[in-house]
Design goal:
The structure holds 2 protein chains of 2 kinds. By secondary structure, chain A is an alpha/beta fold. Chain A has one domain (8-186): Rossmann fold, CATH 3.40.50. Chain A is built from 7 helices and 6 strands; from the N terminus they run βαββαβαβααβαα. A 6-stranded mixed beta sheet of chain A has the order 2-3-1-4-5-6, with helices on both faces. Chain B is of the alpha+beta class. In chain B, the strands form 3 sheets. A 7-stranded mixed beta sheet of chain B has the order 1-15-16-17-13-14-7, with helices on both faces. Chain B has a 6-stranded mixed beta sheet with strand order 10-11-12-8-9-18. A 5-stranded antiparallel beta sheet of chain B has the order 3-2-6-5-4. Chain B is built from 16 helices and 18 strands. Chain B is globular. In chain B, a hairpin with a 4-residue loop joins strand 2 (65-71) and strand 3. Chain B has helices spanning 16-28, 30-35, 38-48, 58-61, 88-103, 138-156, 158-167, 174-177, 181-193, 196-199, 209-221, 251-262, 312-329, 332-340, 379-396, 435-456, and strands at 3-4, 65-71, 76-79, 110-113, 116-123, 126-132, 202-203, 227-234, 237-243, 271-276, 287-293, 300-306, 354-361, 366-368, 405-409, 414-419, 423-429, 462-463. In chain B, helix 9 (181-193) crosses helix 12 (251-262) and helix 11 runs antiparallel to helix 13 (312-329). Helices cover 41% and strands 22% of the residues of chain B. Classes of the chains: A alpha/beta, B alpha+beta. At the A-B interface, helix 1 and strand 2 of A face helix 8, strand 10 and helix 13 of B. Strand 2 (43-52) of chain A pairs antiparallel with strand 10 of chain B. Chain A: Keywords: Autophagy, Cytoplasm, Cytoplasmic vesicle, Cytoskeleton, GTP-binding, Hydrolase, Lipoprotein, Magnesium, Membrane, Metal-binding, Nucleotide-binding, Phosphoprotein, Prenylation, Protein transport, Transport. Chain A: Its cofactor is Mg(2+). Chain A: It catalyses: GTP + H2O = GDP + phosphate + H(+).
Chain lengths: 204, 464
Amino acid sequence: MSGPRVDAKVVLLGKEYVGKTSLVERYVHQRFLVGPYQNTIGAAFVAKVIAVGDRAVTLGIWDTAGSERYEAMSRIYYRGARAAIVCYDLTDGSSFERAKFWVNELQTFEENCRIYLCGTKSDLLEEDRRRRGVDFHDVQDYADEIKAELFETSSKTGQSVDELFQKVAEDYVRFTAFQLMTEEKGGIDLSQKSSPYFYSCCHH
Amino acid sequence: MEQISKDFSELSTQLTGMALDLEEEMRQSKEDKLDLSPQTCRRDSVLSGKEEEDVTMDAWRMHQKHVFVLSEAGKPVYSRYGSEEALSSTMGVMMALVSFLEAEKNAIRSIHADGYKVVFVRRSPLVLVAVARTQQSEQEIAHELLYIYYQILSLLTWTQLNHIFQQKQNYDLRRLLAGSERITDNLLDLMARDPSFLMGAVRCLPMAAGVRDAVSASLQQARAKSLVFSILLSRNQLVSLVRKKDQFLHPIDLHLLFNLISSSSSFREGEAWTPICLPKFNSSGFFHAHISYLEQETDLCLLLVSTDREDFFTVSDCKRRFQERLRKRGVYHALQEALRTPFYSISQVGIPDLRHFIYKSKSSGLFTSPEIEAPYVSEEEKERLLGLYQYLHSRAHNSSHPLKNIYFTGPNENLLAWVTSAFELYVCYSPLGTKAGAISTVNKLMKWIRKEEDRLFILTPQTY
C-alpha cells in the first residue's frame, strides 16, 4: 500500500494518547488543537510535499490508532514503509515499553524501514523537570543499539517537529539515491522507458 | 381506533426484593472505589474523554438509563456512567442473577420494581443490562441493548469476540475496546433523541430529486472492484447510497456507521482507513471503510466500504473521481444549497392542528419527519415527544396484541398511529383537535407526503 502519488511511506506508531495525531496535525497544519482527547479510529492518511534541496518529496503519512484493538491489523499500515516514527510520551514510562514493542515488530517484518524514535510532549518537561518518565540517556543508548534517530518534540510549541520530518525526507532522498547506485539488477527493464536514470546522458 | 388512557407510571412490582438487593450492592460499591489510585482514574477518564462520575453519589443513581456490559465471568466491559472498576461488584451481582436462573434452565429477562425496569440481554460471551426509569417497554430497552451488542461486534467481529473468550474466560475486554467508549456513549445518547433507531429506518436529507440523482450517478460512476457500498451522508441524514448488485445494507449496520462518524471528529483530518464489521451483513469479518469529509468546512461525509484492506489508494481515487464528476455535472452548488435546509417545517403541510409526524416507508427502510418545533423546544420536551412515539410504537408492535390503529388523547397533545404492510405513520396533533378531525386530516397529510416523496426519499436506488 505505498500508492502512486507518494514517494515515501511514513508510518507513526506508538501507544494510545502519546500524541501521534497531534504531531501530524502540527507538522501538516501548523496547529495544536486543544480539547477533549479524540482517539484515532483505524488510521488516517495524509500526503505532504516537502523540499529536500531542489527536490520535492511527497511523504505519505499514516497516523495509526494506538489502541490494542488494531494491533493485529497494524501490518497493513506499516508494510512497505520507508520510515517509521515510533512515538512515546516523555512523561509516561510505559509508553516507552510499548515503543520497544513496535521497534521489534519493525525489525522483524520491515528490515528496510528506518526508525525514528520520538519522545513527545517535551513542553510538559519545560514546565516541570520532575515529570520526565523516560531517561534521555537510556533512550539514546537504545537508539544507538537499534540504529535509530532520536528526537524529543512538542506538538504544542512545535519544538523539533519540522526537523523530525525534514530528517525523514532527507534520509529518504539520501538512501534511495544510494540504493539506485548500488542495486545490482539482472538486466535492463525495457518497459521502464521513462526512467531518467538510463536515458539522461545520451538522449539529448 | 382505540382510546387509551393508561397511566404510564403504573408498572408491575414483581421481584421487588431482588431489585432492592441490587440497589444495596450499588451502594456498597463505595469500598471498591477506594481501592483505585487516583492516577488510574484520571488517566482512564482522559482516554475516554469524559469525567468519570462518583458512583456513590445520588446524581449517579438518578440517571434515566444505565447500561452495563459484562462478560460471562462477571468482568465489567462497559458502563454508561461511572468507571467500570467502581462497579465491578454490582456487575458481579448481575452475573450471579443471570447464572442463578440459568442453573434452573431458565432465563431472566427483566425485573420491574419501583418505577425501574432492569432488562437483561444475553448474547454469549456477553451479558448486557439496562436499568431504566424511562417509559419504554421491555422490548424496546432490549432492542437498544442489542444495538450496543452490535456496536461491540462492529469493532471486533463476532468471530474474534468468541475466540478471545474461548481462549481466556476471564479476559478483560476493556483492553480491546479502549477508546471506543465515546462511540458507545454517543450511540446511547442518539437513541434517546433520534427516532431512526425506534423506526429501524434511516432519514434522508431532503433535496430535489434531480440533484440527488446526479449525486447518485456520480457516486455510481466512481466505482472500484472491491467497493460494496458508497454512502454520502450529512449529520446522520442519508444523501445517497449506491450498493453492489444483490448486496443490501441493513438499517442497523447503517445506523452503526452513522454513529461512528458522528461520534468522532478525527475523520475531519485526512482520509481515514479503518477496519469495520457490519454485524447484520456479516458478523465474522471486517470490511475496510474509507471515511473522509468532502471539504473542510462541510458536513458532507463520504463513506466507501471495501472488501480489500490493501485497496486504500484505489478507493481514495474513487473519492477524487466522485468529486470531479460532481463538479462536471455542476451539482456541487445545489448540494451545498440542500445542506442549508436539512429539515422542513410542519407548516409546509398546511394542516393547522398538526404539530409533528413520522412516516416510514417499509419497502425502502427510509423515514421522513419534519423539524420538531414549538412547543417541543427544550431537550426534555423533545425527549417526551419521542417517548410518546415510543409508547405508540410499542403498543402497535406488541407481539401478543398488535394494533393497526391507535388514537391517544393526552393532556398536552393527541397522537395517532397507523400501521399497514406498506408504511407506518405516527402523528402528533394539538390537544384541542378531535378524533374525527385527526382522521380526516390524515388523508391530507398522506397526499402531501406522496406529492413530496421524490424530495423526501430516495426513489431510484443505484447499484454499481
